[in-house]
Design brief:
Blueprint lengths: L1 H14 L6 H25 L1 E3 L3 H19 L4 H20 L5 H27 L13 H17 L3 H14 L2 H14 L6 H19 L4 H19 L10 H4 L18 H9 L1 H17 L2 H13 L9 H12 L8 E3 L2 H40 L4 H14 L3 H12 L7 H17 L4 H13 L3 H14 L1 H4 L4
Antiparallel strand pairs: 1-2
Helix pairs in contact: 1-2, 1-5, 1-15, 2-4, 2-16, 3-4, 3-13, 4-15, 5-6, 5-7, 6-7, 6-8, 6-14, 6-15, 8-9, 8-14, 10-12, 12-13, 14-15, 16-17, 17-18, 18-19, 19-20, 20-21
Length: 487
C-alpha cells in the first residue's frame, strides 16, 4: 500500500501538469491520507507497526511543524494551507520509504519509468505533430520539464533503458534550459570527482559552455529579472526570518518587496533556498539543507546524481516549486533510507483503541482534503460556466457552495464580479452584497490593490465614501511599496 502511494505521487503527479492545480494536490493528499490510514489500521490489527528511525521522524516532524507555523501565521493563509499540504506529502515520502522494502522500491522505479515514457512520447508528438520547437510535454513549461528530465534521465540509466535515455536527452536539448544543462554538468563533476572518468570531463566541458552562455546573457532579461526576484525573496526572508510569509506565498507577497520601477511579477523566486527562506523562514532552510546533505551523501549513485542535478538547476529555475517534481525529488533523496527494523508491538487490549484513533485521524484528514478538492472544483465549474454564458444564478450557487466548503479570495472576488455584471444594472442590494464579498477577498489576500480600489469605488457609489476610503487606507498600510505604482 505505501509503495503504491509513493508511486502514485511520483509518477501520476507528473502526468497531471506536475500536480500544479489545487484540485490535483487535494486529490493526492486525499489518496495518501486514506491509503496511509488503511495501512496503519491493518498493521494495528496485525499487532505490529513498523516505525521509521527516530532521527528521520524528528527531522520530518520538525520541518512539518515549522512549515505549519508559517502557514498559520501567513497573511495569505488560504494559499499557504494548500501549499503546506503539498509540502507535507514530500516529507511523508521521506518517512514512508523507511517501511518500503527493496523489491517494492523497484516497482516504484518502474512506475516512474512508465511515466517518463509517456512524457517523452508526448513531447515528441508536440514537436513533430504540433510543430512546437520547445515542447513542454505534460508540464507547465520547458524549464520545469527540463528539471523533470534531469531526474528521469538518471533513473533511465539506472534501469539501462538507453532508448528512453536518448529520448529524454533529445527533449532536454529541445528545452533550451541552460540551468538544466548546468545542473547535469555539475552532477557529473560532483559525483565523479574522485576519478578521472569520461563523465567527469564531459561534465566540465558542458559546465564551461553553460557558464559562457550565462556570461553572454548577463544583461538579458532572463538574468536581470532573476536578480530582482532573488532580491525580493531575500527581503521577504529578512522581514520575517523565523517563519516567513507561509508556503506558496511568494507570488502574492513578493511585489511588496520589488524595487520601485521594477514591477516584475513571478509566481516563484527562481531560487530554491531563497524561496524557502521567504516562505518558511531560515530555521526551516537550515534544517532542510542539513537533512539533504545527510541523504545525498548516502544515496545510490544514480538517484544521488538525479537529486544533485535538479538541485543545482533549482538555484536558477523553479523545478522544485512544482509539487510533482518536489515529490519525485524527495523520493530520490530519501531512497538512501534503509528499510527500518524498528517497530512496536500492539497488544490485543490496545488494538481497538488504536484502530479507532487511526480511523478518526484518517477520516478527519480525508474530509479536509475532500472539502478542499470539492471547493476548488465548484469554483472552476462556476467560472467556466459563467464564461460559457450560463445563468448568473447557477454561477452564484456554485460559488456559494464552494465558499461554504473553504475560504478563497478568488472565489469571493468572482462572486462580486458576477453580481456586478448583472444587466441592465445591478440593484443596490446586489452592490452591497458584492462589496461584502470584496471585503472578504481583500482580507484573505491584502496584497492586491485592485480589490481595495474597487471597494472604495463601490462604497462611493453606495453613498458611503468614508468607509471606502478607510478600507483603501487599510490596504495601503498592508504593503506601501506595492501601492507606489497603484493609481
Amino acid at each position: 500500500m505505501v509503495a503504491l502511494l509513493i508511486g502514485l505521487l511520483t509518477s501520476a503527479g507528473l502526468l497531471l501538469r506536475g500536480g500544479w492545480d489545487v484540485w490535483a494536490q487535494s486529490f493526492f493528499f486525499l489518496a495518501v491520507a486514506c491509503g496511509t490510514s488503511l495501512w496503519l489500521l491493518w498493521r494495528v490489527l496485525v499487532g505490529y507497526v513498523p516505525l521509521p528511525p527516530r532521527r528521520l521522524l524528528a527531522w520530518a516532524a520538525s520541518l512539518a511543524l515549522l512549515a505549519g507555523a508559517a502557514s498559520f501565521a501567513s497573511p495569505v493563509g488560504t494559499y499557504a494551507a494548500t501549499a503546506w499540504r503539498s509540502l507535507l506529502l514530500g516529507l511523508w515520502i521521506f518517512v514512508a520509504l523507511a517501511v518500503v522494502g527493496k523489491d517494492q522500491r523497484l516497482w516504484i522505479d518502474r512506475a516512474i519509468r512508465a511515466a517518463a515514457w509517456v512524457l517523452a512520447l508526448l513531447a515528441f508528438y508536440q514537436h513533430y505533430h504540433d510543430g512546437l520547437a520547445r515542447p513542454s510535454s505534460a508540464l507547465l513549461n520547458q524549464n520545469v520539464f527540463a528539471g523533470t528530465i534531469l531526474m528521469l534521465l538518471a533513473l533511465a540509466a539506472q534501469q539501462r533503458d538507453w532508448l528512453l535515455a536518448a529520448a529524454l536527452l533529445t527533449c532536454l536539448w529541445w528545452a533550451h534550459s541552460v540551468g538544466a544543462w548546468l545542473g547535469l554538468a555539475a552532477a557529473l563533476v560532483l559525483t565523479r570527482r574522485s576519478s578521472e572518468t569520461v563523465g567527469n570531463y564531459v561534465g566540465m566541458a558542458v559546465g564551461f559552455v553553460c557558464l559562457l552562455i550565462l556570461y553572454g546573457k548577463l544583461q538579458s532579461p532572463d538574468v536581470v529579472h532573476r536578480w530582482f526576484w532573488w532580491k525580493a525573496a531575500w527581503r521577504m526572508s529578512l522581514a520575517r526570518p523565523l517563519f516567513g510569509f507561509g508556503p506558496g506565498s511568494y507570488a502574492y507577497v513578493a511585489p511588496c518587496y520589488f524595487e520601485p520601477g521594477h514591477g516584475l511579477s513571478s509566481l516563484y523566486a527562481h531560487e530554491h533556498f531563497l524561496e524557502l527562506a521567504a516562505e518558511n523562514g531560515w530555521p526551516y532552510v537550515f534544517l532542510w539543507a542539513a537533512g539533504l546533505a545527510h541523504f545525498l551523501r548516502r544515496g545510490s549513485p544514480h538517484k544521488r546524481f538525479a537529486a544533485l542535478a535538479v538541485l543545482v538547476q533549482a538555484l536558477w529555475d523553479y523545478p522544485l516549486s512544482i509539487p510533482a517534481n518536489f515529490w519525485l525529488f524527495c523520493y530520490l533523496a530519501g531512497s538512501a533510507t534503509p528499510e527500518t527494523s524498528r517497530g512496536v508491538n500492539v497488544s490485543y487490549e490496545r488494538k481497538w483503541p488504536w484502530a479507532v484513533a487511526v480511523l478518526a485521524v484518517g477520516a478527519g484528514l480525508s474530509i479536509l482534503a475532500g472539502r478542499a478538492w470539492r471547493a476548488d472544483w465548484l469554483k472552476a465549474r462556476a467560472v467556466e460556466g459563467f464564461e460559457a454564458g450560463e445563468p448568473a444564478r447557477m454561477t452564484l450557487d456554485r460559488l456559494d457552495r464552494s465558499l461554504r466548503l473553504a475560504p478563497d479570495p478568488e472565489a469571493e472576488r468572482a462572486f462580486a464580479e458576477v453580481l456586478l455584471a448583472a444587466k441592465p444594472a445591478p440593484s443596490r442590494s446586489a452592490v452591497e452584497q458584492a462589496a461584502l464579498h470584496l471585503e472578504r477577498s481583500a482580507r484573505l489576500n491584502p496584497y492586491r490593490p485592485s480589490t481595495w480600489l474597487a471597494l472604495n469605488r463601490l462604497y462611493a457609489d453606495l453613498g458611503e465614501p468614508g468607509r471606502g476610503e478607510r478600507l483603501e487606507h487599510e490596504g495601503r498600510l498592508s504593503c506601501p511599496a506595492l501601492w507606489a505604482a497603484a493609481p
